[in-house]
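Hi all, long-time lurker, first post. I run a small reading group and we've been trying to get comfortable going from sequence to structure in the token notation. Rather than ask abstract questions, I figured I'd post a concrete chain and ask someone more experienced to write out its structure so we can walk through it together at our next meeting. Sequence below, copied exactly:
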Amino acid sequence: MHRVSLFIELIRTRPVAIFWAAALTQAALWTLAPSLFYAAPPGELAEMLAVAHETGLGNPYGPPLAYWLAEGAFRIGGMFAVYLLSQACVLVILWAAFSLGRIVVGPRHAVLAVLLMAGIAAFGVATVEFRPAMLAAALWALMLLHYWRAAGQGRRIYWLAVGLEAGLLLLTAYSGLLLIGLLLVFALVSKRGREQFTWPEPYIGGAILILVFYRHLIWIEQTNLLDTVSFAGLAAVADNAWTWLGLLGLLVIDHAGFVVLVLLARGFTLSPRGPAAEVERAPVDPDARTFVYCLALLPAAAIGLAALFTGRVENFLVPALPVLTALAVIVLAPDRIRIVHQRLTQHTWAMLLLLPPLIVAIAIALLPWTFAVDLRVAQPAAEMGRFFAESFERRTGRPLAVVTGDTYTAALVALTAPSRPSLEFFATPALSPWVTPQDIAAKGAVVVWPATTTRGLPPPAIQQRFPGLVAEVPRAFERRFQGRLPLTRIGWGVIRPSTSSAPAR
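-- Answer (accepted) --
Happy to help. Here is the structure in token form:
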């Protein structure tokens, strides 16, 4: 008797329910895990939020939209809201990929594509850390969906959505111009796309794009930002090539879990215990097939080449690149997809979905006790911010307004101090134009650095820049999961405001 697992049967009969169950489970897990176990933001999220606190129409790091959203989320709900914002972007990506898949390959195969994307998230794209690239990926996914609804299905009203999303994409990352250019070239090359330009809707969408981006364009002109754009010389291209290849290698590693799921489903490993289950679809439209293939493969090449020749490898928007990878594999598959190892595939997918956040939580709790590993997300950020803010206010009678020194440590203090002080990037002051030497002299500042000894002497670079800085006794902080690790020691000193009369200690 032919048996089909309950999971496969639900894919056949309830694909929409399976999609929402998988997508919401992933979003909930990756919101709760960092909220409950991270004592400090991951990666460069603290620096990003420090920049977001100062962002107007733009900043030296790029367009403002992602920074506006991050600052708004942090003010409303703290780090929980920032983690939730990142997962909202992931949810939009998954929904757009599923919706496009329903049009191209039908709901059953579309949900298979979304389930494959769990293998990408498990090994690669850091979905916890909200950044412009994550928002750009969500907007890019929406653009692809709405473009096909406009050009592929003839629902021309969606050109207005494409124009709005393209404008927001440019307000998120300048590299989005390459993605927009790719989509425009595809539209001009394809027959369906060219036919669209005989109607007014694409031009109205273009006008919306300009209106959305216009104010930031004025800011670019006023700040002479274009004067800083340069192309890498031949010598620099060789150096950039290694970085580019490394990023491409990471992109391949990102798909490790994805490949495992494909191999298990196709039966290239082990021997099946029973007959294969089949998930059917209608034949794929040849134009839709071309659209998925082109827009799955070309963005990596285009963005990678741009990073290679401009020397700005941060333009490699990794989260935007796998948006259509899974759907492209499903489109490439036959109309009847045979899943050989039903239960093994089901259990592997569940592990790729559930284990990564569980492993993160276990690692944070146990590694300090076993291997004495000092994780950055385990740094006692809240205690650091509270201590240095209170210490500055006791000495000067003013709330802490500026923090500088070691970038990572200073960013944690800037994020968690109650007064939300401005962060000065000590090594690259030009990247923090909101803090000038005059601001530090007038408002005072706290200078922080990791202390390796109990004396806590400042590093030579800090001592050279602030020759009159008196180092305080290093402050030791205990982590939530301390284990066998030494206490976190932070050296620090206070630069007093020039116009204040410091109270007695």
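A couple of things your group might point at:
The chain has 19 helices and seven strands.
Confidence is low (pLDDT under 50) at residues 268-272, 501-505.
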